[in-house]
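dumping the sequnces here before i forget
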Amino acid sequence: MPRILRVAAAQMGPNQRADSRAAILARMIALLEQAAGQGAQLVVFPELAFTTFFPRWLLEGAELEQYYEAAMPNPETQALFDRAKELGVGFYVGYAEKTAEGQHFNTAITVGPDGSVLQKYRKVHLPGSVEPRAGATFQQLEKRYFEYGDMGFPAFYGPDAWGAPVMGQLICNDRRWPEAWRVYALQGMELMVVGYNSAAYDPNGGDSEDQGLRTFHSQLAAQSNAYMNACWAVTVAKAGDEDGSGLIGGSCIVDPNGRIVAEAKTLGDEVILADCDLDLVQQGKQKMFNFAAHRRPDMYSMITERTGAEPPKR
Amino acid sequence: MPRILRVAAAQMGPNQRADSRAAILARMIALLEQAAGQGAQLVVFPELAFTTFFPRWLLEGAELEQYYEAAMPNPETQALFDRAKELGVGFYVGYAEKTAEGQHFNTAITVGPDGSVLQKYRKVHLPGSVEPRAGATFQQLEKRYFEYGDMGFPAFYGPDAWGAPVMGQLICNDRRWPEAWRVYALQGMELMVVGYNSAAYDPNGGDSEDQGLRTFHSQLAAQSNAYMNACWAVTVAKAGDEDGSGLIGGSCIVDPNGRIVAEAKTLGDEVILADCDLDLVQQGKQKMFNFAAHRRPDMYSMITERTGAEPPKR
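..and the predicted 3d for all of it:
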């Protein structure tokens, strides 16, 4: 029996710092309802979807702590979970997690159509810096505000109603690191879901990569890693001008051949959908990318033995 | 001082089994001269450039052995090396290697403008099978005819006249395996050169991947791995209808942003060129892909511990 999963990417426009949590959640519920109305079974939201991208500022104390969630769901997010369960729709969503022990992570969860959390993931590839850059209007302080993810790359099964796909989750910058995709693919991953907040330009005016090039990079990473790992991929932006700093859009759904089958056209709240035939992954997994037949791990040891690049001796 | 290297991809049309070695070499010298006439300093030829792609047949004895080179250069290839040295041009070329000990490898070398071999590489990711497929008109017997490359992924310096780039070499199928690019990038690789012979369709009529999709896959792998490893990439085909089996073209030169800057338009002998600003790799290597700052090798252990995919427990 064919395993066709109707997936939606729920791209979000910007969440301004002045927006209320309730107003942002109402937009997310509207996107969820729109996707469900079109038959979506799984809706993918962005990274840190409930708030503005706060690592762009140097914050402390209560001003910083307000962005973290001590539980998920919690009173400020419960309505999304309730509505999804009513509609029988699952979702992926990113948020800032604070544990009972006081640890902080950049986290995502995938929730099943029954409202249960299928799997949590904590972002491994944190960009930015610990110390603020002197004189910069905008920071990128993910390495200050979050600890490195400590769960590895845990693949999991989606529910039978989705065709029980082996799924993986990444967050933003992770999607540019082929190691992350590969560890999931080595667990048989068939469907990757990814939320992101990616700068459209250097908000401090420092470089030459424009919005078009950055969107190209984002889609290139999704397309190639979907191809090279023989999986479907759904990558979803928070986009547009958020508190004076631009974020790319370019949310897309990619097939196991690396082709974009659905793509957001705006920088605002926008739902795109695709029917993902999960068995299309078999062409790649059984032939070109039959790992058991063709990988040569004895030649890859440098990947785990070395962190930074070391040039050869002259 | 800027480091600008003018690189040519010397795509070759098909080498028929009936073609003489001398006729093929004359075509290669003509491509070399055409590239040198346009100022190329490095000319990249395809995989197994001196012959037809013989792993498509089940052969044995002298009929098979004729395709291997016991030395490189040798009397049948010396004229290419001599002409390149006269012109002061370096080149990459692929060939079937037979060692003094009787080992066989699918091999490539890069030769400097002074005629010296800068580095040899032996293909790690051999596709195909050891045993012939019963009833098939065309085989893919690389695993039968070659041993797995035993040199790892040895990065090396190009000569000072090229700006002393850190270079890497891959062969055909290797380019689809992100591990191979990453091991080179962990040695600071700035310029990757790759020759290939890639099927344009299943010559036995077995599948649905057409020539356009296969060319897209080839370029997607080159573009994304150049971007994710912050390097230039030159990937070069033997193309066209070779002995009744189709090969894709699509040779291209890719910048460190993953953009194609030059691309072959035919399936025949064709030279394309680009001026590669080697310092463009620094944007990626110092920021987004600063490996020392951002890689998390402790999370990648599955890449070397596992060969095939193993699904999670239910």
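The longest strand of chain A covers residues 90-98.
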